[in-house]
Design a protein that fits this description.
The protein has a six-stranded mixed β-sheet. A six-stranded mixed β-sheet has the order 12-11-10-8-13-14. Strands 15-18-19 form a three-stranded antiparallel β-sheet. The longest helix is centred in the middle third of the chain and has 28 residues, at about 305-330. It contains 19 helices and 27 strands. It is of the alpha+beta class and about 600 residues long. The relative contact order is 0.09. α4 (about 95-100) packs parallel to α5. It has three domains: about 5-145, Creatine Amidinohydrolase, Chain A, domain 1 (3-Layer(aba) Sandwich); about 160-300, Creatinase/prolidase N-terminal domain (Creatine Amidinohydrolase, Chain A, domain 1); about 300-590, Alpha-Beta Complex (Creatine Amidinohydrolase), CATH 3.90.230.10. The N and C termini lie far apart (about 60 Å). Keywords: Aminopeptidase, Hydrolase, Metal-binding, Protease. One of its GO terms (molecular function) is aminopeptidase activity. Pfam families: Creatinase_N, Creatinase_N_2, Peptidase_M24, Peptidase_M24_C. InterPro entries: Creatin/AminoP/Spt16_N (IPR029149), Creatinase/aminopeptidase-like (IPR036005), Creatinase_N (IPR000587), Pept_M24 (IPR000994), Pept_M24B (IPR033740), Peptidase_M24_C (IPR032416), X-Pro_aminopeptidase_P (IPR050422).
């Protein structure tokens, strides 16, 4: 099965053996994770799609891959249109498509460990209208035909000590116990990997770029917990850190453990706990309380120690990125640089800090037309040279023990066109509008999203992704529940009020298919602002790295926008300048000079 066509053919044969007329392949794992370990990369293995969000449906005579606006171009580059129909979400959901294309009376398979109960209900309803049914499988048919499927990671856990976490695991579990008392519940099932890592003050290496470990946890009303994790992942130091209040079990014991809660009231998050978990609890006689994971909001609202740690990580990371931008500016006009050589060089600069643990995601290094795909990732096949007349976009981040970073910058290779400068300036105006927003408590990110879009809207343009996502504290680079996005944009979702301590990205952009992409991204922190009429909320910018001045049309900026830019650049020099040598500081000072 050296080709994706052969893999699709093999899967169809396996579906026939399992008496199925179709199967749904999501890009997730048993924890409803966005980023998954190699063992769970079923969608990529089957289709070749390398994005971080998508699903597929395979029927006997048709197959479809579902992606959102971030991947409109990328999916067509990576997935063969001869084998797959491209379907845009959310305009068309998987359930909608199945309701139109599933064979009448057919049996459509799904893995109950990879879908939520809400999705199962939606798909079942759509199929019932065609006389078809959704069938839970015991054996995932993709796994059955994936001959060299990697095993789950056996990497060991590490302790995230209290000095970096800011709160002990005991204190965090005590807060969960208080929440359980309020809910009149006996226990809560935790399935989100970053929730488990945060509560127990541990980190792992089971998912690329996200320091989590494959595990489940159940926290009881007395603040003790059961942790289900492979024994070989536990070092003596981790066992000592967890202590007697954490009972340890093999990960494979989790499913059976759910069957012992007869007469108990058990909370579980319907967004992150898969259908199989609810089924097991039901079968065991538990009373299920569908509730949002109590860790979600606590984890998103950073404590002072986590905020201080991020500031240190961001200053360190900003200096590494500034060195990289200086290098690209000097070397690209000479020729010879490629997207992948730039990825390698940026990695060198970050590794030179001596404390880089990982990147926070695969670096997006995109030149020219590749920049028009917001989540493009260069491969040996797509690797393009940086050439004169192009814009080069780099979106990257680092994982450090004290913080997770995410930042995007754009450089011109040679002389930019007037249109490039106009669009860049409008994106910058939107970035500044969000960075300087003042708003009352209770405001959601969706209510602020339009601030960043208005300069583009004014000339009839927009971008097809959310403006901001939450960011973890040495955890996931994409963290809920807060977003700066309307529900219909990728990254949108239920409205969540912004609260002091939440850390998010500010990343408006513009993308011209076949030509270039622009995005300016900093991380921002929600903070209280004492004003004349009362207390409001605003943002503190946390990322410090120069914004390319040659792409800015100064006359398009208002005096207030110029002041913001000049103040920001002065802070860039103050925050990262001391980490640079004399030549680098001279370059930085020139880059951060007041806008003309």
């Amino acid at each position: 099965m050296s080709t994706y066509t052969a893999r699709l053919t093999a899967l169809r044969a396996q579906l026939a053996r399992q008496r199925l007329d179709g199967f749904v392949v999501p890009l997730t794992d048993e924890h409803m994770s966005e980023y998954v370990g190699a063992y769970a990369q079923r969608l990529a293995w089957l289709t070749g799609f390398q994005g971080s969000a998508g699903s597929a449906v395979v029927l006997p005579e048709a197959a479809a891959i579902f992606t959102d606006g971030r991947y409109t171009l990328q999916v067509r580059e990576q997935v063969s249109g001869d084998d797959w129909h491209y379907v845009a979400v959310p305009a068309t959901s998987i359930a909608d498509w199945l309701g139109e294309h599933a064979p009448a009376g057919g049996r459509i398979g799904y893995d109950p460990w990879l879908h939520t109960r809400a999705w199962v209900a939606e798909a079942s309803t759509a199929l019932a209208a065609r006389g078809a049914e959704l069938v839970a499988v015991d054996t995932n048919p993709v796994d059955a035909v994936w001959p060299d499927r990697p095993a789950p990671s056996d990497a060991q856990l590490a302790v995230q000590d209290d000095a970096r976490a800011g709160l002990s695991s005991a204190a965090k579990r005590a807060a969960i116990a208080d929440w359980l008392a309020e809910q009149q519940a006996d226990a809560v099932v935790l399935t989100a990997l970053d929730s488990i890592a945060w509560v127990l003050n541990v980190r792992g290496k089971d998912v690329a770029h996200t320091p989590v470990a494959l595990a489940y946890a159940i926290v009881d009303a007395d603040g003790t917990a059961d942790l289900f994790v492979a024994p070989e992942k536990l070092t003596d130091a981790v066992r000592q850190h967890l202590g007697n209040a954490i009972r340890l079990h093999p990960r494979e014991a989790f499913a059976d453990a759910l069957g012992v809660y007869a007469t108990k009231r058990i909370a579980a998050d319907p967004q992150s706990a898969v259908a199989a978990i609810f089924d097991r609890l039901d079968q065991g006689g538990a009373t299920i309380l569908p509730s949002r994971d109590p860790v979600t909001l606590a984890k998103a609202t950073k404590n002072p120690t986590e905020i201080a740690g991020h500031r240190a990580a961001s200053a360190r990371d900003g200096a590494a990125l500034a060195r990289f931008l200086r290098w690209v500016e000097a070397e690209a006009p000479k020729g010879g640089l490629t997207e992948l050589s730039c990825v390698a060089k940026l990695q060198e600069f970050r590794e030179a800090t001596g404390v880089l643990l990982d990147t926070s995601f695969d670096t997006i290094s995109a030149t020219g037309a590749h920049g028009a795909s917001p989540h493009y990732h260069s491969t040996p096949d797509s690797n393009a040279p940086l050439e004169l007349g192009q814009l080069y976009l780099v979106d990257s981040g680092g994982q450090y023990a004290d913080g997770t970073t995410d930042v995007t910058r754009v450089l011109p290779i040679g002389e930019p066109t007037p249109e490039m400068r106009d669009r860049f300036t409008r994106v910058l105006k939107g970035h500044i509008a969000l960075a300087t927003a003042i708003f009352p408590a209770g405001t959601t990110g969706g209510q602020l999203d339009g601030f960043a879009r208005r300069p583009l809207w004014e000339i009839g343009l927009d971008y097809a992704h959310g403006t901001g996502h939450g960011v973890g504290a040495y955890l996931s680079v994409h963290e809920g529940p807060a977003r700066i996005a309307q529900p219909f944009y990728p990254g949108g979702g239920p409205a969540e009020p912004l609260r002091p301590g939440m850390m998010l990205s500010n990343e408006p952009g513009y993308y011209k298919a076949g030509a270039y992409g622009i995005r300016i991204e900093n991380l921002i922190l929600v903070e209280e602002r004492a004003l004349e009429g009362g207390t409001m909320l605003g943002f503190e910018t946390l990322t410090f790295c120069p914004i390319e001045r040659t792409l800015i049309i100064a006359d398009l900026l208002t005096p207030a926008e110029r002041d913001w830019l000049d103040t920001y650049h002065a802070r860039v020099v103050a925050v990262i300048g001391a980490q640079l040598d004399a030549d680098e500081r001279a370059w930085l000072t020139a880059k951060c000079a007041p806008i003309a």
